[in-house]
Structure formats: structure tokens, C-alpha cells
């Protein structure tokens, strides 16, 4: 009889907990959709400050603004974490043209890749050689590439339903193309923009020269997708066409900046830390609304919503707005370095860095036992059309926190439009839907609530 009573008690407790969780998620979504601040915060970041290139005046303005907003939320603690960041400047706008025959030219929309060196003062003009990937350089060899401009023209794979898979399949040519081409005597690199949309907007992004000496580095730029198709067709008709481009970018000495951090102290397990965040820096072509202003304001909104509904967290909740994800990851590395030096116990980390589009779910980097627990929460999200709970990656900024105990996650919105805007001049505020942004913030808050309520699975 006692056993039967115990079983009935467990069942009733489980039902009660489920009803409580359902009510809490409903309160979270209601608050996000009717009392949220994310859209207004993003409007200021995007329209009043603009693109926040690491080390720029605008990046510092974003630090000051978000710190002030977190302070106004009445958190237990708000502070700035110093970090040295690279400072790369674009300079005067880039210019390029295709020369189909002597004196006959077509202007081509390009943008310097982040971290690239400039061209000589008068620019460079040379025969251009098209390749579909880095592997083709070795096949062509120095004899075919020396003194030429290399055109990397491998497009994103349109058959990949997750556009991030298409992006990862060709980002190597942007990141490492110049370093590889320089070894074969190329004098410049042009890379097809990483976007599935055919338009006239070039997309920038980080690139690296590896250990190549400064004097041997060659300039690298991205070409719009439409111009890339035109250039490819022109080369197929006449392999002797020339390409000219000029850019004025410069890599300067590192400068001081900050991660912005706000915290609510846990009531029961204050030494267990849950982190939610995004990166405050952006590229300079647009205003960084999707990448990653959206992730920053959604992360701030998590703490705002929980305070709004009167929720008292058991564990310490911390929002971190990381600096310098785009071209260095200095903020994420610094945060993890300081956390390790203080022997802080991070039990969960969630990042939003995939745009402010309609949320679909999360990816998780965790043990099987923790993933099984998270999967048990999936029915709570289904009324909000959140259906994707899969094991996979999490986020670049929280990556340095990884160990064998922490549970890590990344918000995964619908990805079909993300690379239309990624690192381009149209990553701007008007392309962020207010309701989609708010739904993303509510979805993140719900997962944080559940992780705080139940904790991660402790394994031997």
C-alpha cells in the first residue's frame, strides 16, 4: 500500500511540475510579445550607432549603450570585462572593373575581406584565373598562377536545406584562399560572396594569412554573386580578360575594448552559472542587425523577461555581450580565460548568433544523458512551433567554455534568409521582423528557465 501511495505521489508531482512549466512558458511568451524591449534596443544599436567593427568608435558606443540598458534592468551586477581586440579599417570604398578588351570595362561590386591588406596605391590589374576551390591551385601550379588574380567561384550548395551547411562547404576559400594562392605567386584574390541570392551586394567576412610574412600577403576581396556569374561567363568566352581592383584597408595595432556582462545572483546554487549571449561587434557594411545585434538584444531580453514575470532563479544567470567574434574571437576567449582563472562553475551556456528570424529550435553540445533530459522538455515547446532539438554545435563565443561537464546550446532560427544578409550592406534593421525577434527571445528564456529549474544531469 505504501508503495502504491509513493507511485501516486510521484505521478501527481510530475503532473503538477508539467502544469507549472506550461504556465511559466506561457507567461514567458506573453511577456516577450507584449512587454519586450528587444526591438527597441536593436533599433538603437542599428539606427543610432550602426555597424560595430571591432575596435571602432561605434563598437565602444555599443558597449556604453548596452551597459546602461542592463543597469536600468536592475540586475544584481553589471560590469565591463577588458579585452584587447584587433583594429582593421576599410578606408575609402573599394573599386573594381572587368576589362573584356582594351578600353572596354564593366564595373564590378566588391568589398575587401576583413583582415586583408590593401592593394598598391594604383590598384592591381591582371589576367584572372577561375577556380572552384583551394584544391585546384595545386593542379594549376605556379606556372599558371604566378602574376595572376585568382577567382574562387565555388557557390554555396543550394541543395542543403540548412543554409549553414552550404556556407560551411565553401567558407574555406574566403578564409584561406589568399594565403594559399600567395604560395603560387598570385598577386590578388577575388572570392564569390557566400550567399544563395543572386544580387549585386558583396559580402565581406574574416580571412587569414596564416604565418605568411606581411610583405608577402596579397589583397583579397569578395565579389557579388551576380558579378561572379558574369565574370565566370566572361572568362569562359575569353580566358585572357583582365580584372582590376583597388582597396585601401589597413590593419592597425590592437586596441582596448570590453565584453559587457550583467548578472542575477542565484538564490539556491549561486556558484552554478548559466550564461546566455551574443556578439556585440559586427561588420561595417550594414548595421549588424541580424549578425549579431539580434542575438545581443535577445540575450538581454532573457533577464528582462524573467524579472518581468517575477521569476527568482536558483542558479546565477549571466548575460554576456562578447566583443570581436567576427575577426578574432577575443571576447569569447577572454571570458573563458577569466572564468577559468576564477574557477567558476559554468553549467549551461546558450548563444544566439544565427539571425533574428523565426525560431525553430536548438542545437546542443552535451552528453547523451543531458540530451535525454532536454528532449523530455520538447513537448513544452511544441505549442510554440519549436520542434528542432538536435545534437550538434553551439556557438563560437561560448565555445572556449567547453569541457566534459557543461551543457552548451545554440538557438536555431529558420536559416533560409540569413545568408541573403550575412556580412552585407543589407544586414539592416528593416529586415528584422519584430515578432520573430521576440519569439526567439521567448524561446531562449524558456530553455534558460528549464535549465535553471532542473539543472543539468550530474554524471560520474
Order of neighbouring strands in the sheet with most strands = 1-10-12-11-13-16-14-15
Distance between the termini: 34 Å
Helix content: 25-40%
At the fourth CATH level, what is the homologous superfamily of the largest domain? Zn peptidases
Shape descriptor reads: elongated
Give average pLDDT, whole number: 95
Which residues sit in consecutive blocks of at least 5 with pLDDT less than 50? Answer: 6-13
Total number of distinct structural domains: 2
- Here the CATH topology of the largest domain equals Aminopeptidase
Q: What structural class is derived from the secondary structure elements?
A: alpha/beta
Question: Would you mind describing this structure in some detail?
Answer:
It is built from 13 helices and 16 strands. With 460 residues, the protein is an alpha/beta fold. The longest helix has 34 residues. The chain folds into two domains: 267 residues, Zn peptidases (Aminopeptidase, 3-Layer(aba) Sandwich), CATH 3.40.630; 158 residues, Glucose Oxidase, domain 1 (3-Layer(bba) Sandwich). The strands form two sheets. The chain has an eight-stranded mixed beta sheet with strand order 1-10-12-11-13-16-14-15, sandwiched between helices. An eight-stranded mixed beta sheet has the order 3-2-9-5-6-7-8-4.
Amino acid at each position: 500500500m505504501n508503495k502504491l501511495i509513493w507511485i501516486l505521489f510521484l505521478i501527481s508531482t510530475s503532473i503538477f511540475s508539467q502544469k507549472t512549466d506550461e504556465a511559466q512558458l506561457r507567461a514567458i511568451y506573453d511577456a516577450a510579445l507584449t512587454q519586450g524591449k528587444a526591438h527597441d534596443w536593436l533599433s538603437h544599436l542599428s539606427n543610432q550607432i550602426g555597424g560595430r567593427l571591432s575596435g571602432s568608435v561605434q563598437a565602444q558606443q555599443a558597449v556604453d549603450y548596452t551597459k546602461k540598458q542592463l543597469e536600468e534592468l536592475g540586475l544584481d551586477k553589471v560590469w565591463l570585462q577588458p579585452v584587447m581586440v584587433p583594429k582593421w579599417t576599410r578606408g575609402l570604398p573599394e573599386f573594381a572593373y572587368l576589362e573584356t578588351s582594351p578600353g572596354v570595362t564593366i564595373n564590378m561590386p566588391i568589398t575587401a575581406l576583413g583582415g586583408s591588406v590593401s592593394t598598391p596605391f594604383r590598384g592591381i590589374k591582371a589576367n584572372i584565373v577561375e577556380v572552384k576551390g583551394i584544391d585546384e591551385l595545386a593542379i594549376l601550379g605556379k606556372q599558371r598562377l604566378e602574376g595572376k588574380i585568382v577567382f574562387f567561384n565555388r557557390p554555396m550548395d543550394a541543395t542543403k536545406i540548412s543554409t549553414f551547411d552550404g556556407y560551411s562547404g565553401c567558407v574555406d576559400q574566403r578564409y584561406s584562399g589568399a594565403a594559399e594562392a600567395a604560395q603560387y605567386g598570385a598577386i590578388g584574390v577575388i572570392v564569390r560572396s557566400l550567399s544563395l541570392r543572386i544580387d549585386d551586394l558583396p559580402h565581406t567576412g574574416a580571412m587569414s594569412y596564416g604565418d605568411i610574412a606581411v610583405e608577402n600577403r596579397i589583397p583579397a576581396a569578395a565579389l557579388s554573386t551576380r558579378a561572379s556569374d558574369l565574370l565566370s561567363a566572361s572568362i569562359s568566352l575569353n580566358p585572357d580578360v583582365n580584372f582590376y581592383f583597388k582597396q585601401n584597408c589597413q590593419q592597425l595595432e590592437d586596441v582596448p575594448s570590453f565584453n559587457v556582462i550583467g548578472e542575477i545572483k542565484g538564490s539556491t546554487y549561486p556558484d552554478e552559472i548559466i550564461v546566455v549571449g551574443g556578439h556585440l561587434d559586427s561588420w561595417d557594411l550594414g548595421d549588424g542587425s541580424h549578425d549579431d545585434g539580434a542575438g545581443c538584444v535577445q540575450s538581454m531580453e532573457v533577464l528582462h523577461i524573467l524579472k518581468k514575470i517575477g521569476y527568482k532563479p536558483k542558479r546565477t544567470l549571466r548575460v554576456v555581450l562578447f566583443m570581436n567574434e567576427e575577426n578574432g574571437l577575443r571576447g569569447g576567449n577572454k571570458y573563458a580565460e577569466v572564468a577559468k582563472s576564477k574557477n567558476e562553475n559554468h553549467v549551461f551556456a546558450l548563444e544566439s548568433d544565427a539571425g533574428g528570424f523565426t525560431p525553430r529550435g536548438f542545437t546542443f553540445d552535451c552528453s547523451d544523458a543531458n540530451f535525454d533530459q532536454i528532449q523530455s522538455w520538447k513537448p513544452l515547446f511544441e505549442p510554440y512551433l519549436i520542434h528542432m532539438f538536435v545534437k550538434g554545435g553551439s556557438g563560437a563565443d561560448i565555445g572556449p567554455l567547453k569541457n566534459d561537464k557543461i551543457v552548451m546550446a545554440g538557438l536555431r532560427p529558420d536559416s533560409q534568409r540569413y545568408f541573403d544578409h550575412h556580412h552585407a550592406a543589407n544586414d539592416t534593421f528593416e529586415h528584422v521582423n519584430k515578432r520573430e525577434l521576440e519569439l526567439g527571445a521567448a524561446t531562449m528564456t524558456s530553455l534558460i528557465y528549464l535549465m535553471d529549474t532542473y539543472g543539468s544531469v550530474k554524471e560520474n
